[in-house]
């Protein structure tokens, strides 16, 4: 098994509204557990800009401020043919306004 040398940056956004955490399921993949918005940082993209972009892409909610960095964690992600180094950047985004509990 080979290891890739360049770390792949990922973002996770823990968005809260009142006392609730925003999670979603994937209708195309019902076996996947609930998850928070997030994804891969594009080449040359700033980490926090990627967090705002991914949050908007996955929720349809456009936010441009209020996101706070929580923690970054580096770990090895093992694929069948290789190992990747991932760096997860976690953010908190408090939401305001009116939302459905659904």
UniProtKB/TrEMBL annotation:
List the keywords (alphabetical): Hydrolase
Cross-referenced InterPro entries: Nudix_hydrolase (IPR020476), NUDIX_hydrolase-like_dom_sf (IPR015797), NUDIX_hydrolase_CS (IPR020084), NUDIX_hydrolase_dom (IPR000086)
By its UniProt entry, which SUPFAM superfamilies does this protein fall under?
A: Nudix
- Needs which cofactor? Mg(2+)
Q: Which GO terms describe its molecular function?
A: hydrolase activity
Its signal peptide is: none
Which residue ranges does the record assign to the Nudix hydrolase domain?
A: 1-102
Q: Which family does it belong to?
A: Belongs to the Nudix hydrolase family.
According to UniProt, the name of this protein is NUDIX domain protein
